Amino acid sequence: MTDGDRRAQPDVLCFAGQDWWYHNRAHSDFQLMLQLAKTHRVLLVNSIGMRMPSRGKSQKVLQKIWRKLKSILRFLRRPRPDLPNFHVLSPLVFPAYGVPWLRGFAAWLVRAQVRAVAWWIGVSRPAVVITVPTAWDVVRRLPRQCVFYNRSDKHSDFKEADNAFIASLEHELFAHADHTLYVSETLLADEAEHTGERAVFLDHGVDLERFSADGLAEPADLAAIPRPRVGFLGGLRDHLVDMPLLAAVARALPDVQLVLVGDVPGDVGPLDGLPNVHFLGFKDHAAIPAYGAWLDVGLMPYRDTPWIRACNPIKLKEYLALGLEVVSTDFPAARRYAAHIAIAAGHAEFVAGVQQAVAVADEGRRAERRVLARRLLAADTWAAKAEVLERLMQPGAAADSPRTTGKPRGTPERTSHRSAAR
């Protein structure tokens, strides 16, 4: 990109909801910033958190503190040689938000580091994207072109945070953001009175090229597990994932291997010791397509909670792009794809759905589902989502994209089985 091109594009400052160095890089803020960094100078600030980890509320407290310290020691890096305009900052943080003067100090500390780094790399008056609500304390006193609130989750429902405090920041962002970007139609509808015409249903994207690629080599640790394989690609957080449901699948279908690829932050409860359950641990996002490509069925085993009802898991589109049979518990975001996945209302239905999905899964059907997915998700690439955000960065831009989309674009006739949803 030439200097002239760069001057024509606004710089972008993003306060991410995750940490680049130890979280899954599938998250929307990471993916959007990688796309924008092709034509914009981007400074991504790793999550400044919503609470201090504490015993009794947080799992693996010392591990979480240690990994954050290691991230902070990296401070400023350019982690992608192919994207020289993409910078990642891990600021020194002190997330003690419960005491007013400490809250003010915490915001000043992060703001000072962001100002210094922005000056050093040439970022000025950027378009600001906020995913974690606590970043508003930092951003409110930063010079900027515009503010986007990336409403990826309802953070005030996070069980470890001060819910009332986080809710107050969410409402401040509703009032001050130029646009609120939603990935959940449920959240958009629930919060319409606060966001009005400034709300945009952006949805999540998917990397179709990576998740529908042919010839992905079978990972060695997965190759040791016999088929059929059903799997969940994601962190096993017990407040989100229904562990008893997964255990019910493993017990009811002893000849089916349950493969769990992701971080295990705590006790796995009823899954412990089951012979057909395989924990493969956290994998870099670049490796995930290969693991998914060698599964037979992708699982969405979520609990029924306010957090889940307001979420939109990226992995659903990734499962579809891989051509997997998909079995999910019932929540609003899943219903948008009800013609293409099995949705179960309870444990018994979920187990039956998995059994049926295993029975019909084969290479021919998978190839057909991958072709279907490319049509279904053609307008939902991360590049397309970044283009919407880029248009909204222009001065005076209106939220002219549809507030809701109803069914996924290009929804054809039903081609897959489906358990009774409701």
List the helices and strands and how they pair.
Layout: H1 3-8, E1 12-15, H2 28-36, E2 42-45, H3 61-74, E3 76-77, E4 86-89, H4 100-121, E5 127-130, H5 136-139, E6 146-151, H6 163-176, E7 179-182, H7 185-190, H8 192-195, E8 199-201, H9 208-211, H10 220-223, E9 229-233, H11 243-252, E10 257-261, E11 277-279, H12 288-293, E12 297-300, H13 306-309, H14 315-322, E13 325-329, H15 332-335, E14 342-344, H16 347-360, H17 363-376, H18 382-392
Parallel strand pairs: 1-2, 1-5, 2-4, 5-6, 6-7, 7-8, 9-10, 9-12, 10-11, 12-13, 13-14
Antiparallel strand pairs: 3-4
Helix pairs in contact: 2-18, 11-16, 14-17
Helical fraction = 25-40%
**Number of H/I helices:** 18
User: Largest sheet, if any?
Assistant: 8 strands, mixed
**CATH fold naming of the largest domain:** Rossmann fold
Question: Total number of β-strand segments?
Answer: 14
Poorly predicted runs of 5 or more residues: 1-7, 401-422
Strand content bin: 5-15%
Shape: globular
Query: Could you report the average pLDDT, rounded to the nearest whole number?
Result: 88
Radius of gyration, in Å, reads 21 Å
